[in-house]
Design a protein that fits this description.
- The chain starts with 6 loop residues before the first strand and ends in a 14-residue tail after the last strand.
- The protein is globular, with a radius of gyration of 17 Å.
- It is 16% helix and 25% strand.
- It has 183 residues and is an alpha+beta fold.
- The protein has a 4-stranded mixed beta sheet. It has a 3-stranded antiparallel beta sheet with strand order 1-5-8, with no helix packed on it. Strands 2-7-6 form a 3-stranded antiparallel beta sheet, with no helix packed on it.
Amino acid sequence: MRPEPGQVLHFSENPSITRFVPHVAATARQAEAYVWAVDAACAPDYWFPRACPRAMAWRLPTTSAADRDRILGPGGGDRVHVIEYRQVAAFLSVDLYAYRFDAQPFRPFGEPAPSAMVAVEAVEPLGPPEPVGNLLELHRAAGIQLRVLDDLWGFWDAVVRSTLGFSGIRLRNAAPRRGDADD
C-alpha cells in the first residue's frame, strides 16, 4: 500500500473522513497547523495501528557491515520494524485505511531527511479510503522484517548508536524502560 506517482497517503483507522483540515497535533514540536501525509518511501512506517509504538531501522549506503549484521541480522533484508509483544493483537486485527491525495499541495517535512509530507491548506481525498489489508502480509511482500520484542528500548539504544538509518514513532506509548517503572 503505497501512493502512486503524484500522490501521497494518509493512514487512519477512521474510514469516514471527507476533508482534512490543518491542525496542530497534541504531540507536535512545531506551532504550525498541517495536514500530514507520507510519500512512498515513508508509507511502511505507518503500516501499524496509530497508537502502536515502533522502532525502525534500515541499511544506508554508509551502513557498516558490522551494524548490518548485528542489528538487521543475517537473512534479514535491508529493513526491520520492531513492535512489542503487547501490540501484536492490535497489529493483526486493526482495520487500517489509506487516503490518497494529490501531492501538489504537500511539501516535504523533516530534517535532515523528510519524514512526512505536509499541507497548510485543507485537502480532500482523491476518492474513498482504501482498506490497507493484512499488515503482516504487507511487510512480507515489501521485504521488511517484522520483529517482536518484550522491550523496544534495547533495540532502540543499539540502532541510534549505529550507522543504520532509523525512526521511532509513538515511542512514548512503549512499555517503560526496564528499571524505569515505578516499583
